[in-house]
Amino acid sequence: MAPDVLGAEHRSPSPAQLRSFALLSILYAAVTVAVIPWASEPGPADPNIVVVYGIGILVADLCTAALLGALYHDSGRSAFLILTCAYLYGALMAAAHMVTFPGAWYEQSLFGGPQTVAWLFLAWRLGAALLFFAAVLQAARTVPPHEARLGLRLFAACLLTVAAAVVIASISARFKINGLSGERFTEVATVVQWLAVAVSVGALALIWRRRAFNDVLYLWLGLVLVASIADLTLSNLAGGRFTVGWHASRANFVVSACLLLAFLLGDLATEERRLTRPSLFAAYGGAVAVTLAAVFLRWFLDPWLGDGVPYITLYGAVAISVWFGGLGPAVLAMVLGYAIVNVRYISAEPGISITGPADHLALILFTLSCALIIVLGEAMRRARDRYRVSEAEVKARAAELQRADENKSRFLAVLSHELRNPLAPLRTGLWLLRQRSADTAAKETHDMMERQIAQLARLIDDLLDVSRIDRGKLELRAEHLPIATVMQTAIDTAKPNIDAQGHELVVQMPPQPLYVEGDMMRLAQVVSNLLNNAAKFTPPNGRIELGARADAGNVLVRVADNGIGIAPERLQEVFEMFVQLDARHKGSGGGLGLGLTLARSIARRHGGELEARSAGTGKGAEFIMRLPRAGAPGVKAPEKAVEPAKPASERSRVLVVDDNVDAAQTLAAYLRLLGHRVESAVDGEAALRIAEVLRPDVAFIDLNMPRMDGVEVARRLRVTPWGRSARLVALTGMGQQSDILRTRDAGFDAHLTKPADLDRVSRLAAGHTS
After folding, report:
1. How confident is the model at residue 295 (pLDDT cuts 50, 70, 90)?
2. Which of 315, 385, 428, 580 could anchor a disulfide with 666, C-beta 3.0 to 4.6 Å?
3. Are 285 and 60 in contact (CB under 8 A)?
4. What whole-number distance in Å separates Cα of residue 289 and Cα of residue 269?
5. What average pLDDT does range 541-563 have in this prediction?
6. Per-residue pLDDT tens for 141-163?
7. What angle do CA 479, 480, 486 make, to 5 degrees?
């Protein structure tokens, strides 16, 4: 993964990473508790050991700072800038610590006095803890990624960090308060270390409380804080230098310095992309750091192991190096580790030397063991990288599929909406033709055209419903319903199709009233779809059965036929979108294959299910809808009396506004035939000009118009003295509940969805409320 990707995106910790964090935290706590009883026991008192762990920390912190600086430059996350300063500060203080520790690089401190090393160490630990805490506080803040400014900020921050380190070193050299008394820590030094522990605990608690800010980077930073808390605790409990607790704390210190580096390198490396220059530098630096950490640990074990098994800790360093850096860093760890161990434990002379068969055999076995670790580790690393690449590709493809599905749903919604507009003038024009012709043959043609327009309207409704279901926007108006009413409504809808095929419809209503909670229109749509489906796939003069019954807290609605049937292995396919199982059947081409898809989706939205059954091809089919049964309703309050209708013969002034010229003209012609005075307009501005003269009693207004939409037209009409009493009717292809609420808020009195029912149009034009 490239640095810019890691820096730009917050990646949530996986459950496995959260478990690893918990286990490693428990491990640190267990090691700390295990060492505490022996923390004050004396250990190896060799100042040269400071050089080993000091160089390890120095290299690890510099490499980590380089990676974090690159990430800040790419992402602009201010937390990365603070962490860069924290690790650069740690590297500088590690160098200062080594040159002021008596007997490490120099016999005496390079600058300052005997107390300088103690105060430098305390300033190092407390300063780093404060910077970590600041980075946690800045977790979610970013700045605009202007490369020039980010680079300048990074450079300035690094300069300030160097200057701060120099100032702190100067102050420490002049500080007169004792931090050490011989090899023991003074009470002041102990208090400062406990203060650093408290700051680290605070930062860790904030990370845990915020769930690592939903970013795996902060999970690893939390682990760094756990290790820091452990090593500072051991250092304090040890009470002084060169004790078992002191050595254990320094081992923890080196490990904590390498933790974030290991995470960053593990995420930056992939098989198909070479490491960038900062990460390549960090990979080799990390190999040096973990090798020195391994040497330090072996050095610490000298009182118990002596010169035996000198390579025991190097194998782990080689394994870690190959895991985050690959072949080159692993080989460097092997060579460097052998060189240091040879000088420390094997060579009898200054420098590296191999004498005798035992040394040669030990070298061969060490090399073979490391080679095996490197080969296996490299194979595992490549497998890890391939997995990450494939996982990223799968996620990208899943996102593409999701976008494609959303685009498809939006397309269906727009398509169905746009297809409604031509239907409106077609239905109105057909009515006008019917009024002007009394010929019997023409009447039959008009009836056929009306049926086809109604069929096209149903297909468009199905397309719109599919898009609504896909986007989770299908709205239900739940009410207490008798299932018999649902069935009767569905029968009224499907009866013309059933009669046209000469089918016998056998209806068995439930013996006692059964009730469900649901949307009357949608449930009737399910049953009518099932009836129409049965009529379509049953040969002429067939038999269709419709019935309902109670069943263990549910209401079952059953539709069965003696039609072409369904192969058992294809029963689930009938519910898939756009599926037509038997295209050879003459009735199968009369739809889009959406009816059963919609029926099952609507049933499930009601907390039910739709099941298909068939004994096989040619043996008919049976569909059963299962809905949760509701209790009998209470006594209803008397309904409000319906407002008396305005006489249809009364002449109204009507304004028709629609950017579809055909729709506007045909509706205007229809209303004129009813005796109304009608004017039409094809845009909002023209409508307002005409309205000033006409002063309409009723206005039918399309919503989607260029320049000024119907909602704005309605608002402007309502602010006029005569417009406050006018009846405004939205006439649009959008029929969602949210669309109806939008028109109501804009001041409309009614909402009609194209193609509108002409009887309702005539009633509204005559002044009726619906």
Report:
1. very high
2. 428
3. yes
4. 18
5. 93
6. 655 555 558 888 999 999 999 99
7. 90
Distance CA 711, CA 709 (A): 6
Mean pLDDT, all residues of the chain:
85
Strands 677-681 and 543-551: unpaired
From CA 238, how far away is CA 36, in angstroms rounded? 8
SS3 state of residue 698: strand
Cis amide leading into 42 (omega within 30):
no
Tokens 């609504």 correspond to: 468
In the structure, what pLDDT confidence band is assigned to residue 646 with cuts at 50, 70 and 90? very low
- H-helix or E-strand spanning residue 710: helix 710-718
Q: Is the dihedral of CA 762, 766, 767, 768 positive or negative?
A: negative
Higher pLDDT, 17 or 64: 64
* Unique residue bearing structure tokens 């999970």: 219
Residues in CB range of 465: below 8 A, 6 or more apart: 474, 594, 598
- Mean pLDDT for the stretch of residues 491-513: 90
Strands (E), 60-212: 180-181, 184-185
What is the distance between the alpha carbons of residues 434 and 444, in angstroms, rounded to a whole number? 10
**Residues with Cβ within 8 Å of residue 747, at least 6 apart in sequence:** 714, 715, 717, 718, 728
pLDDT, tens digit, 9 for 90 and up, residues 164-180: 999 999 999 988 889 99
559: enclosing H helix or E strand: strand 554-561
Cα(627)–Cα(630) distance, rounded to whole angstroms?
9
Would you state the pLDDT for residue 8? 44
DSSP 38-59: GTTSB----THHHHHHHHHHHH
Q: Count Cα atoms within 13 angstroms, Cβ side, for 732.
A: 23
C-alpha 95/C-alpha 74 separation (Å) is 29
Q: Tell me: pLDDT of 76 over 60.
A: yes
Backbone angles phi, psi at 560, to 5 degrees: -130, 155
Residue 511 tokens, joined: 């013996």
Residues forming a β-bridge with 654: 678, 698
Q: Contact, 672 vs 631, CB < 8 A?
A: no
Nearest-angstrom CA–CA distance, 258 and 56:
9
Band the pLDDT of 7: cuts 50, 70, 90: very low
- Write out the H or E segment, with its range, that includes residue 223: helix 216-238
Rounded to two decimals, what is the model's pTM? 0.61
- Residue in 360, 357, 321 with CA at minimum distance from that of residue 337: 321
Lookup: tokens for 343: 């000088």
Q: Which one has a higher pLDDT value, 638 or 345?
A: 345
φ/ψ of residue 336, rounded to 5: -65, -45
Spell out the residues 6+ positions from residue 379 whose beta carbon is closer than 8 angstroms to its own: none
Tokens of 706: 């260029």
User: How far is 527 from 515, CA to CA, in rounded Å?
Assistant: 15
- Alpha helix ranges (H) inside 346-439: 356-436
Q: Which of 206, 203, 304, 258 is nearest to 56 (CA)?
A: 258
Q: Strand 543-551 relative to strand 504-508: parallel, antiparallel, unpaired? A: parallel
Give the integer Cα–Cα distance in Å for 529 and 465: 13
